[in-house]
Amino acid sequence: MSDTYDAIILGAGAAGLFCARVAALRGRRVLVLDHAEKPGKKILISGGGRCNFTNIDTLPERYLSNNKHFAKSALSRFTPRDFLDLVEAHGIAWHEKTLGQLFCDGSAKQIVEMLLEECARGDVTVHCGDAVASVERSDEGYTVRYGAAQAQAPSLVIATGGPSIPKMGATGFAYDLARQFGLKVVQPRPALVPLTLPADEALFRELSGVATEVVVTCGKTAFREAALFTHRGLSGPAILQISSYWQRGDTVHIDFLPGQESGWLKAAKRARPRVALRKVLGEALPDRLAQALAERLALTGELGNLSDKALDTAEAQLARWPFVPDGSEGFAKAEVTAGGIDTAGLSSKTMEARKVPGLYAIGEAVDVTGWLGGYNFQWAWASGFAAGEAI
Ligand SMILES: Cc1cc2nc3c(=O)[nH]c(=O)nc-3n(C[C@H](O)[C@H](O)[C@H](O)COP(=O)(O)OP(=O)(O)OC[C@H]3O[C@@H](n4cnc5c(N)ncnc54)[C@H](O)[C@@H]3O)c2cc1C
User: Fold this and answer.
1) Angle between helices 308-319 and 287-297 (to 10 degrees)
2) How far is the centre of ligand 1, averaged over its atoms, from the C-alpha of 259 (Å)?
3) Which residues are in the RsdA/BaiN/AoA(So)-like Rossmann fold-like domain (predicted)?
4) pLDDT tens by residue, 59-72
5) How many CA atoms lie within 13 A of 98 on its CB side?
6) What pTM does this model have?
7) Whose C-alpha lies nearest to ligand 1, atom 4?
8) Which residue among 19, 31, 42, 51 is best mutated to probe the pocket of ligand 1, counting the most ligand atoms within 8 A of its Cβ?
């Protein structure tokens, strides 16, 4: 016995639930399947439990993809304001934290409840707790076997996300399915992830727990946010952001004192020749970090006894301190997966596979990865909306 629907959506995460809601409110009969015991698990842990559900400064340039134009269409047709309207219609209080990042005042649970209420309004069937055993395509459409049941629909949406945080139930299932239907997959890699430092950077690892605002640069990309030293290397928003652009072998440069005017150390020397570099650094940086940097710079004694040239060199080093990470903390700690289902095989308007009618891919499963700060949920909503309007 097979139940029939207009669309089957695999994955009851952000993208899948939103897509289901959009399609159902257009009158489609929708089944959402998830192997986890409950829907929206990643939403629940997102944004430290408060869900950074969008970013009002969303721009296509703030997404990584092999095709940097791909996300434009969907992002322009479902904007942060559109999602905010829904949040407000459900009476969910929110606030802007920083850099356009919008969070719930209360709990991420409110976002999951909102999505489920919207799905219920459209009579969406959400079935959790059974793994998808197989997906087959025939003239009648797609047949999905799960648990002891099976369902059939002319449209199938892949919304099973990427493999980041496997202990939350994340898998590479989307890629297996995409390949089964002849779609290509851009090599998935951990993104928004802490970077690890080799043993010879032990001095910095002793700074575990120290955070400071920096500008971090990798190639042509730079972010100004907080960096955090950890017992394994570097973390904090600035590092998570740059990790998405970092590739093995790349050097990451940190400006520990962004905003200081050129020549500030020489100016300090003129103003306070009796003061040690260690003390001057300690006035601008956390104490332990100032200590570690002063040791590495190896400039001891009073500023007045140091040459201008030595101070210029120290200033330049502090503004472009090189780190060569030996890796990242991997999918276990990555907030998202970069890479994924190749956008070359998908329509940017509908998310439908160009050569496989009725097959769609949305959300993190696709090779579109946002910056830290609500961008990835906005992609989930926008791509879910695009497919939800089409199925
Ligand atoms: C700790 C953490 C915090 C985050 N915080 C934020 C934030 O504040 N703001 C932001 O924008 N982004 C945040 N993200 C990223 C964001 O959670 C994801 O980008 C987003 O959830 C992707 O939505 P999705 O629907 O594509 O995938 P997911 O939300 O991962 O949903 C995929 C669903 O598919 C299911 N699934 C997987 N494999 C199978 C299978 N084989 N069979 C059936 N079902 C399957 C999973 O159980 C899951 O429910 C965070 C991520 C993490 C890990």
Assistant:
1) 120
2) 36
3) 6-389
4) 999 999 999 999 99
5) 6
6) 0.97
7) 46
8) 42
